[in-house]
Each structure stands twice: as structure tokens, then as C-alpha cells.
Amino acid sequence: MSQFSFSSFDASLMVRDAKGHYQPATADQILDAARQAIEHKMQRGASFTSPAAVKEYLCTKLGGFEHEVFAVLFLDTRHRLIEYAEMFQGTIDSAEVHPREVVKAALRHNAAAVIVSHNHPSGNPEPSAADQALTQRLREALGLVDVRVLDHVIVAGNATASFAERGLI
């Protein structure tokens, strides 16, 4: 595993190579470090205290992918994090999501609620008709086993769109 540190000379992120020498970090290494940091910060049992905290977490996790990734935050009855799972990966403009698999995972985690999310590598967070239809299918499927869908957040870089905030859930 690479070690990261900030250089005191130019304030850029540096990574130590196999020989112990520091080199400038690549964009992918920086994104991986950010994902590790947010994962460490928001561990099992962490409470999402606001919609802004959820969006920040999801932007860090999904914002840098060049292909669509569909993820689920599995939550307990007090909306504390049980597990974050990247369940489906797709292409640059779509990902095939299977509600049955989301239901199975929710039951396996004994989740009371979920927040679903996916990224739009295009940079436009606006929900499509397909996004809205998928959200409805997930709500119906999860509702059969008493798991609430609290939100569907679309991440496009640092921009987000929340179905709950737009009254779509």
C-alpha cells in the first residue's frame, strides 16, 4: 500500500514508490486515497447527520469513475450505516441494475432503509426517465420486505441530484 504525504514545498500530494522515493501522485491515486479516507471516516454505525453529509460521502465514493457505478447505502432503523456496497458497474452511460439483487443484499444486511446512488460520468446529474423508473421499481421491490428507499442520489463529479429533495420519492 502506498503512503501519502503533502510536500511542504509545493503542497502537492506525493506517493512513495517501491524504493522509498516520493513521486507526484496520479489522479487515480488521489481518488483512491480520498475513497480510503471517507471509508475510514464513515464506518459501520456512523450516522449521516444531514443530506449534505450523504452527498459528500457519495461524491467521494462515486465522483471519479469513468463508467457508471450503482451503489447502495444499507442503513439500520436509526439510519446509521451498516454497509456501503457498489453493486453494479456499467458503461459510460448506463448500468444494468437488478432489483432482486438489491433486495437480497438488503435482507442479508438486515437493513431497514437504503439510499441508492449512481454516478453520471457525463457530468450532468439530471435524472433520466430510466433513473426515475428504476427508483420506482426499487421502491416497490424493497417495500415488499419493509425496506424503505430514503433517497436516490445521482453524482456527477461534485454535482448531485437528490430524488428526495426534488420530491421524486
Automatic annotation (TrEMBL):
Keywords for the protein's UniProt record, in alphabetical order: Hydrolase, Metal-binding, Metalloprotease, Protease, Zinc
GO biological process, one term: proteolysis
Keyword Protease: yes
Transmembrane segment boundaries: none
Pfam families, A to Z: RadC
Record domain MPN: where: 47-169
Domain of life of the native organism: Bacteria
NCBIfam families attached to this UniProt entry: radc (TIGR00608)
PANTHER family referenced in this protein's UniProt entry, alphabetically: DNA REPAIR PROTEIN RADC, UPF0758 PROTEIN VC_0510
Protein name: DNA repair protein RadC
Source organism of the structure: Luteimonas marina
